[in-house]
Amino acid sequence: MDVPETAERIADRLSGVSLPEHVAIVMDGNGRWAQQRGQPRHAGHYAGVQAVRGVIEVCARLQVRALTLFAFSSENWRRPKAEVRVLMELFRTTLDRELAELKRNNIRLRFIGERGRLEKGLQQRLTLAEEETAANDALTLVVATSYGGRWELSEATRRLASAAVRGELDPAQIDEAALRSALCAPDIPDPDLFIRTGGEQRLSNFLLWQLAYTELYFTETLWPDFTPDELAVALEDFAERERRFGELGSKQGAGEQQLAAVPLGQARDA
Ligand code: IPE
Ligand code: IPE
Ligand code: MG
User: Fold this and answer.
1) Is 198 in the pocket of ligand 1 (CB under 6 A)?
2) How far apart are CA 192 and CA 210, in angstroms?
3) Atom of ligand 1 at shortest range from CA of 222
């Protein structure tokens, strides 16, 4: 697959479609993809890298502001040691191999998750990649690794409590904005669209705070098979959604205006 050419075609296909500013993806189904082919699970993880390249390329081309990819969860540490080792090694080699290309494309890298659990060398690479891409202002690529939504919220709570104990924060001031400010990447707006491949319909502890009003999209497609065209289908589906955020939507809003036009007594009798 010629990735840049595919991205051009997708951009044509989606021209005029209203796009999300932030897409968050649970890349699930690698193990099953491999098992279906009689291969070991790690073959699916390797195969998934191409799908990662495809979505990054398309999001960058479409000028999506942020893309968050769930690479490894807090709970994934409970997998067999050999699989964890393969995943960490793949993460490190992919980062090393792709960093130059990401930089060339003006992509900013950020990592969210419990870094202290990662190997020291990998921790340093993450920090370096963040520093070296900090000034890039096309797509922001957020990679969630060793990440769990509950971990992030516990961590945020601890930070606020510490600030309160130091006398820097009045507990009465703790509101939604204060809690958000203590999250891993408070400056990045919440995802507009969540995509999960692999057929499971759950969040698996991903971005629990940030997904409160995100549009959810699930597909049976296993992650290594998730092509730019499948991403285009998800984006087209998103464009059809009506987001209401608890308010009245355009249809209900129109009904409200009609009601307002009816004299009060008649409306009550109706
Ligand atoms: C997603 O694929 C990758 C990670 C969780 C790291 P899985 O490894 O969960 O694949 P399935 O769900 O077992 O098929
Ligand atoms: C979610 O997939 C985590 C990632 C894709 C990194 P899992 O395969 O770990 O989720 P569960 O166990 O099916 O909920
Ligand atoms: Mg899975």
Assistant:
1) yes
2) 10
3) 14
pLDDT tens sequence across 24-72: 999 999 999 999 999 999 999 999 999 999 999 999 999 999 999 999 9
User: Has residue 260 been placed in a domain?
Assistant: no
Rounded to whole angstroms, what are the CA distances from 138 to 10, 57, 59? 18, 11, 10
CA of 195 to the centre of ligand 2 (A): 13
Which residue is catalytic, options 76, 105, 136, 205?
76
Nearest protein CA to atom 12 of ligand 2, as residue: 204
Is 151 among the domain residues?
yes
- CATH code for the domain in which residue 72 is found: 3.40.1180.10
Residue 78 burial (CB < 10 Å; 0-12/13-18/19+)? Answer: exposed
Q: Which ligand is nearest to the CA of 70?
A: 2
User: Is residue 261 assigned to a domain?
Assistant: no
- Contact, 51 vs 226, CB < 8 A? yes
Question: Whose CA is closest to atom 1 on ligand 1?
Answer: 28
Q: How many helices (H) and strands (E) does the chain have?
A: 10, 6
Quick: pLDDT tens for 66-87: 999 999 999 999 999 999 999 9
Active site residue 76: yes
Identify the domain containing residue 71 by its residue range: 17-239
Domain assignment present for residue 263? The answer is no
Supply the pTM of this predicted model.
0.94
Q: What is the 3-state secondary structure (H, E, C) of 102-125?
A: HHHCCCEEEEECCHHHCCHHHHHH
Q: Give residue for tokens 């989606």.
A: 14
Q: Give the Cα separation of 99 and 101 in Å (integer).
A: 5
State the total domains in the chain: 1
